[in-house]
């Protein structure tokens, strides 16, 4: 479904601030795989996500999605293939527009824009049905401006908007990190439910090891611009956060894992 | 009501088109566009030039819309593709248009005496004044203008609810989000700027025909007048929905003209009007903030008082 081949990216090449963000990364994602990605700050997680979404272009290497070479396609040109939820609950929705208008934009992903009404009764019916899945009562608030919703509700809506058109790839960029534990748990459950329903090929970045182990069916650990651990489902199921740390140390030849932001529980 | 007030309402309606244009960039796209001063005079210049050359006034006004739209698109390309700061891109187009407008007109002022214009057409309809008990409430001309601008308002309301219109609004509201859904925000920005300046040019074309001449300096300060109308309208009449805010912007334009008319009647000089305009905008921008601050302080005080007693 997604193939990243020999991708390299260097920021500020040739200056004192030179930073190698990705070194020769290769990744082959099969359809329906749900990959969780962990790694310390600066490991290259965000760079990799931005490469896939088209926010950044690689210096060398290729990226193909569903057999299509998208390496040089801009963000909006490959958006029809990719659904994305950001860390910031404010980032995925337009606050001054209503819930139904936001959903109408999501429904139009990758399609030609026309001068037909963005929202009509037919679409409204579809939106209500989809919103019911969220269990937030949003199906009765179609005409509410999104800015009035709570962070958790906005993130749930973002998740729905990113997924209900069944993109080829779903990118989740620490999408629970900015929420309180209770709401984060709600979004986690929703994510599992929605991904399973549409059998979405998903890549999720997280700082929560427990989450990385409990969710998905493959785990990647990034470090210093490369993939240092690639753990398949069977092995992942038996692991605990401590096992992950030990695996990291083994992979790095004794270097201990130091990252304040990591949540072990 | 007296003649000055009647004139203020008529003007307010014509400048309401300008206000709707400014609203599209300033509020919908969230781009401060200074092209307006140039494209307003451009609209007047195009309409006057073509009407004098014998073009049908309807066609001449339509041409003003198209050419004004091109000017807006130019600012848009400069801003999105050339990565020029939006304010600067607008200023550059505006200053270039000053020379272009002089070229179009051939001289600084083009009178439209004895020419058939949209305004003479409206007057020839001889719609009777709307009177109640012998007092004129609205002139026949304003009635026609009201119908016209309401139709325009409804067209804009409709456009902002189409798929393309939703994209435009989201471009101003959350560009990162709308890009992730496959919309090229460069394109939507250019479309929005073109549409806005097209409307501004139509406003200029109408004003030229209404006042009976086009002048190269007629656009000076139009951006501030447009902003004043938008801000005053929103403060006085609300902005909870698109339908409401477009109406508010038109009403804001009328209120602005009424304030100007009153200031003139109070004995101020026409040359003082730019100062009055600036004051109106300052008051409209600051009073709601200050009022909110006072209100919040009172709320805090009352809560504290309540705790003290308990």
TrEMBL record, chain A:
GO molecular function: ATP binding; ATP hydrolysis activity; transmembrane transporter activity
Superkingdom to which the source organism belongs: Bacteria
Cited SMART domains: AAA (SM00382)
InterPro entries: AAA+_ATPase (IPR003593), ABC_transporter-like_ATP-bd (IPR003439), ABC_transporter-like_CS (IPR017871), ABC_transpr_LolD-like (IPR015854), P-loop_NTPase (IPR027417)
Keyword ATP-binding: yes
Residues of the ABC transporter domain: 2-249
Record key words, sorted: ATP-binding, Nucleotide-binding
GO CC annotations, alphabetized: plasma membrane
Alphabetized Gene3D superfamilies for the sequence: P-loop containing nucleotide triphosphate hydrolases
Protein name: ABC transporter ATP-binding protein
Species name: Brevibacillus gelatini
TrEMBL record, chain B:
UniProt cross-references to InterPro entries, sorted A to Z: ABC_transp_permease (IPR001851)
Transmembrane segments: 12-29, 58-79, 86-106, 126-152, 187-208, 220-238, 245-264, 276-295
Cell compartments where the protein resides: Cell membrane
One Gene Ontology CC term in the entry: plasma membrane
GO molecular function terms noted in the UniProt entry: transmembrane transporter activity
UniProt topology in membrane: Multi-pass membrane protein
Domain of life, source organism: Bacteria
Record keywords, A-Z: Cell membrane, Membrane, Transmembrane, Transmembrane helix
Protein name, per record: ABC transporter permease
């Amino acid at each position: 479904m997604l193939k990243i081949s020999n991708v390299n990216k260097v920021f500020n090449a040739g200056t004192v601030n030179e930073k190698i963000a990705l070194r020769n990364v290769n990744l082959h994602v099969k359809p329906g795989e749900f990959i969780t990605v962990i790694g310390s700050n600066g490991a290259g997680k965000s760079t990799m996500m931005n490469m896939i979404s088209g926010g950044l272009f690689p210096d060398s290497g290729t990226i193909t999605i569903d057999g299509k070479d998208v390496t040089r396609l801009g963000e909006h040109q490959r958006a029809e293939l990719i659904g994305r939820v950001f860390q910031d609950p404010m980032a995925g929705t337009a606050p001054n527009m209503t819930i139904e208008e936001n959903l109408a934009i999501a429904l139009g992903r990758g399609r030609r824009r026309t001068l037909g009404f963005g929202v009509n009764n037919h679409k409204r019916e579809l939106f209500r049905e989809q919103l019911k899945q969220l269990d937030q009562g949003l199906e009765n608030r179609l005409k509410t401006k999104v800015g009035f919703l709570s962070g958790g509700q906005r993130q749930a809506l973002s998740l729905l908007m990113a997924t209900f058109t069944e993109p080829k790839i779903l990118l989740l960029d620490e999408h629970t990190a900015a929420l309180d534990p209770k709401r984060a748990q709600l979004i986690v459950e929703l994510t599992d439910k929605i991904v399973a329903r549409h059998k979405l090929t998903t890549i999720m970045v997280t700082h929560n090891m427990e989450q990385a182990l409990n969710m998905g069916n493959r785990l990647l650990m990034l470090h210093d611009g490369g993939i240092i651990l690639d753990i398949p489902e069977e092995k992942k199921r038996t692991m605990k956060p401590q096992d992950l740390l030990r695996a990291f140390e083994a992979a790095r030849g004794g270097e201990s894992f130091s990252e304040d932001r990591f949540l072990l529980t | 009501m007296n003649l000055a007030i009647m004139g203020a309402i008529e003007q307010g309606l014509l400048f309401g088109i300008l206000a709707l244009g400014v609203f599209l960039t300033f509020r919908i796209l969230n781009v401060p566009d200074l092209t307006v001063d140039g494209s307003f005079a451009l609209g007047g210049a195009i309409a006057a030039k073509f009407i004098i050359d014998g073009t049908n006034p309807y066609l001449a006004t339509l041409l003003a819309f198209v050419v004004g739209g091109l000017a807006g698109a130019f600012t848009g390309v400069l801003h999105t593709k050339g990565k020029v700061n939006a304010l600067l891109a607008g200023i550059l187009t505006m200053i270039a248009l000053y020379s272009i407008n002089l070229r179009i007109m051939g001289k600084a002022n083009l009178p439209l005496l004895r020419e058939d214009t949209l305004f003479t057409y409206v007057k020839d309809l001889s719609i009777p004044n709307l009177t109640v008990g012998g007092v004129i409430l609205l002139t026949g001309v304003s009635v026609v203008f009201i119908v016209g601008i309401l139709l325009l308002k409804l067209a804009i309301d409709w456009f902002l609810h189409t798929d393309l219109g939703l994209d435009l609004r989201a471009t101003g509201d959350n560009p990162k989000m709308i890009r992730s859904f496959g919309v090229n925000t460069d394109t939507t920005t250019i479309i929005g700027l073109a549409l806005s300046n097209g409307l501004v040019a139509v406003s200029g074309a109408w004003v030229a025909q209404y006042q009976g001449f086009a002048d190269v300096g007629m656009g000076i300060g139009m951006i501030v007048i447009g902003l004043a109308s938008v801000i005053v309208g929103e403060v006085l009449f609300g902005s909870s929905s698109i339908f409401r805010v477009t109406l508010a912007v038109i009403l804001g334009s009328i209120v602005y003209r009424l304030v100007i008319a009153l200031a003139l009647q109070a004995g101020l000089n026409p040359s003082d009007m730019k100062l009055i305009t600036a004051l109106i905008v300052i008051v409209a921008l600051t009073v709601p903030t200050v009022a909110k601050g006072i209100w919040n302080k009172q709320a805090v005080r009352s809560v504290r008082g309540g705790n003290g007693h308990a």
